[in-house]
Amino acid sequence: MRTFLAAVAALVGLAFTIAAGAQTQAGAPDVERYVNSIRTLQARFVQSNPNGSVVQGTLYLRRPGRMRFEYDPPSQLKVVADGTQVTMWEDFGQWPIGWTAASFLTKEPFQLSGDLTVESSQRTADGLLALTLVQTRKPKEGKVIVRVSENPMQLRGWSIIDNRGNKVEVTLTDLKTGVQLADSLFKYDGPDAGEIMRGGSNRN
Fold it and tell me: Is the peptide bond before 64 cis (omega within 30 degrees of 0)?
């Protein structure tokens, strides 16, 4: 479970740390325009973790600042950003969006300049455009690879590789934009902190 949650934390790290950086590379301006055109998004995701486990769920997004990763049963794991903070449970934890440098899909506006550098831009064997991003000041701390299709442009997933080579890979399917999403999706709806710390009867 600890490894699984570490992988989820890495996923949150992607969703809330990418937005701000990069020297212009082929395709980067198009990706920037594409992300800025998105107001709402819903997609299925498959997440492959460093320990070999694979989990699935649904991603909901409303820009700026709101996102929800809801994992399929039997997992009770959810990750929610409400525009102010990020909450993840089963294990209870909250992080101010400012502390996590909320970015990437939720950043308004999304800009590939500043804190990150586009290390490379290339086409993959399956025809996707892959942008590899690193922190400008700490390029050896790990990298994020964002994958999009180009005709038409659509976000297809991302990979997070930490400085020890551990990799979390997320693939998106059935992606829809411009959908109506209920406000309740972006509000914490899990058990309270005390319940989780006690073992939470609703987690049995």
Answer: yes
Average pLDDT on 162-172 reads 88
- Convert the pLDDT of each residue in 171-197 to its tens digit: 999 999 999 999 999 987 766 544 544
- The CA radius of gyration of the chain, in Å to the nearest whole number, is 16
Determine phi and psi for 167, rounding to 5 degrees: -125, 130
Written as six digits, the tokens of 191 are 């058990």
Give the number of C-alpha atoms closer than 13 A to the C-alpha of residue 161, restricted to the C-beta side: 10
Strands laid side by side in the 40-48 sheet: 93-96, 85-89, 78-82, 66-71, 54-62, 40-48, 167-177, 153-162, 142-150, 129-135, 116-123
The rounded distance, in Å, linking the Cα atoms of 3 and 19 is 26
d(CA 125, CA 48): 19
Q: Is the CB of residue 169 less than 8 Å from the CB of residue 47?
A: yes
Residue count (the chain): 204
In this prediction, residue 91 carries a pLDDT of 52
CATH classification number, 2-179, choose in 2.50.20.10, 2.60.130.10, 3.40.50.300, 2.40.50.140 = 2.50.20.10
